[in-house]
Amino acid sequence: MVGGSARSRAPRECTQDPEAWPHAVVDDVAAAVVQTIARRLADALRERGLSRRGAADLLGVNRQTIADVIEGRCWPDVATIARLETGLNTPLWPPLARR
């Protein structure tokens, strides 16, 4: 588990311009992974014509959690990512973190 204050700021707050999330420049490797997950999740929902509420009903993941991941307001846990990836049949986690 990440120690210290590494998760005291939301992923979007680890960017040079939080308002540009999920396309802002990210200096933190963990926030960059969450940024990729957020982009891929938003793209998958858009491609399937799913609202966040519709995705929540379909995937068994809380609507607010989906919104928070997409908006970079939370550090999603492994269980959430696994449910999203499985339910959407789409890889969200990047194959190699940007450095």
How would you explain this protein's 3D organization?
- It comes from Streptomyces spongiicola.
- This is HTH cro/C1-type domain-containing protein.
- InterPro entries: Cro/C1-type_HTH (IPR001387), Lambda_DNA-bd_dom_sf (IPR010982).
- Residues 41-96 form the HTH cro/C1-type domain.
- With 99 residues, this protein is an all-alpha fold.
- The chain has a single domain (11-88), classed as 434 Repressor (Amino-terminal Domain) (Orthogonal Bundle).
- Helix content is 48%, strand content 0%.
- It contains 4 helices and no strands.
- Helix 2 packs across helix 3 (63-71).
- The protein starts with 28 loop residues before the first helix and ends in an 11-residue tail after the last helix.
- The mean pLDDT is 91.
Which key features would you list for this structure?
Lambda_DNA-bd_dom_sf; mainly alpha; 434 Repressor (Amino-terminal Domain); HTH cro/C1-type domain-containing protein; globular; 4 helices; Cro/C1-type_HTH; 99 residues
